[in-house]
Amino acid sequence: MSGPLLSTIPVGPLQCNCTILADVEAAEAVVIDPGDEPERIVRAIEATKCRALALLHTHGHFDHIGGTAAVRRATGAAIRIHAADRPLYDALVEQASFFGLAAAPPAPPDGGFADGESIPFGRFALEAIHTPGHTPGSTCFRLDGESPVLFSGDTLFRRSIGRTDLWGGDTDAILESIRRKLFVLSDGLRVVCGHGPDTTIGEERRSNPFAAV
Q1: 155-179 confidence digits (pLDDT tens)
Q2: How many angstroms separate the CA atoms of 160 and 156, rounded?
Q3: Could you tell me how many helices (H) and strands (E) the chain has, helices first?
Q4: Where are the domains positioned within the chain?
Q5: Among candidates 58, 24, 35, 55, which has minimal Cα distance to 129?
Q6: pTM above 0.90, yes or no
Q7: Which of 61, 149, 151, 189 is deepest in the core (most CB within 10 A)?
Q8: Across the chain, which distance is largest between two alpha carbons, in Å?
Q9: Nearest Cα residue to 196 out of 140, 152, 157
Q10: pLDDT (tens digit, 9 = 90+) per residue, 125-136?
Q11: CA Rg, the chain, in Å?
């Protein structure tokens, strides 16, 4: 069984990577980090001819949640974010204002996810991996199968890590999350980051200037 259809769209002024994963055969999809440009995201979902089951969030910063309410209205998909980031999520308007941007109030989440929880869509599933540090509720999602992928949000970037100088950030925690929960994964595992280009676990374990071991 080949993997799901995967499309990543950089959205908004900070170019957050929003990813749509679709099982075309089962006509079910999930969306990771619908951070902005909701009309564009909805068009991409509609192009798959799949029903969006869930809007999954790697964390609660404004650039990863700003389009969520509008995508929810258009699709009916459940909004899910780790409970530890609910205060950040609820403060969307204040967060955006801090960066000189405007945002509408967020739609209430429908639930969170536990560390290790499986989130199914069609014939596939994502594993939620709680990786606190960038924010208290930061969560990565791992897609298994023939073409496995890790969606790392702002925890791990190509040759960098998420900043820890914003509310709830913790440098020791993010390094522990990366080394104990991500760097134990397979070398060749593709990593789709929250911003910027893809990388692999092996590349970052060897060459990341902040977290290499």
Answers
A1: 999 999 999 999 899 999 999 999 9
A2: 6
A3: 7, 13
A4: 5-207
A5: 58
A6: yes
A7: 61
A8: 46
A9: 157
A10: 999 999 999 999
A11: 16
